[in-house]
């Protein structure tokens, strides 16, 4: 099968389209013929081995997994003999752990995937897992979102942000979206009640306060988050722009949360699980959540797709079609 392969950390130029062995499913695995796979910031962190901490998971000097790509959507081609919930021909979406998606086939276990809703395309289904689960776990589990709350989503126009806006609306929030001028209409179209153009206004300086602040950028200081929170507000940060921001968030955020009434912290790494994929599947089927796709690239253009995502201005999700 064809796959985009890398053997050394580096820029997107180190990725090569190669012929590799088609995987064979173990007894508890499904062989998926991949139709689409989303691109996530995790892919370029793992590609570059940056920040260095990422190498603790990915391999200290060389990447342990030669194939990147976490989100997948496709068709089951074969199943191992212990698999009970799927059969060849089923259309599924989900993830394949920390890599394997930038390829024609991948093996996963039953817990990694759920049936693909019939009303969405493979491109949309391939865009979901990491970004939507991050938004879901950030808002619901870490942010303890409640109906009627004032919710702010920073980075509302990106992969995680576009899911966060729709999920915050689903949970009954009054949602303010922060994005740049060119994305104001798009975030309104997916449910924003209010918009703030970050090129003209700073949401931490305008006096407004929110019960829940979900940050999919991670570019603000702990004191700025505190200022934008209501007295018992919670700030959940999904991303980070520099390591010093991340460490400040982990250390100062923990101290602030322990000593005051406001909670500020990094959400850590979202964990994909079948229950949350099934929860999302229902919202997709009922049209409460619809993936926003920015661009699709064919498999050989994974390097261009990663370069585009790395520039930091994707509008929704970037997807590889296979
Ligand atoms: N914790 C986890 O498990 C987890 C999982 C997934 C992702 N993440 C992290 O979450 C972050 C977002 O991921 P993503 O997939 O959404 O990335 P993404 O799609 O690349 O996000 C791009 C978006 O960020 C917006 N943006 C850039 N600068 C901004 C600013 N100063 N203020 C507001 N918005 C700004 C851009 O809007 P404009 O074009 O309008 O500037 C663009 O729409 C990343 O740091 C990623 O590593 C964490």
Outline of the structure:
The protein is an alpha/beta fold and 322 residues long. 29% of the residues lie in helices and 27% in strands. It has two domains: 2-128 and 291-321, Medium-chain alcohol dehydrogenases, catalytic domain (Quinone Oxidoreductase, Chain A, domain 1); 131-266, 3-Layer(aba) Sandwich (Rossmann fold).
Q: What gyration radius follows from the Cα positions, in whole Å?
A: 19 Å
Q: Ions, cofactors, ligands: which are bound?
A: NADP nicotinamide-adenine-dinucleotide phosphate
CATH architecture of the largest domain: Alpha-Beta Complex
Under CATH at level 1, the class of the largest domain stands as Alpha Beta
Spell out the CATH superfamily of the largest domain: Medium-chain alcohol dehydrogenases, catalytic domain
> How many structural domains in the coordinates?
2
Biggest beta sheet attributes: 7 strands, mixed
**What is the structural class?**
alpha/beta
In round numbers, the mean pLDDT is 96
Helix content: 25-40%
Poorly predicted spans:
none
Write the element-wise H/E pattern from the N-terminal end onward: EEEHHEEEEHHEHEHEEHEHEHEHE
Q: Could you please say which CATH topology of the largest domain applies here?
A: Quinone Oxidoreductase, Chain A, domain 1
Number of helices in the DSSP assignment = 10
Number of strands: 15
Distance between the termini: 11 Å
From the spread of the alpha carbons, the general shape counts as: globular
**In percent, how much strand structure appears in the residues?**
25-35%
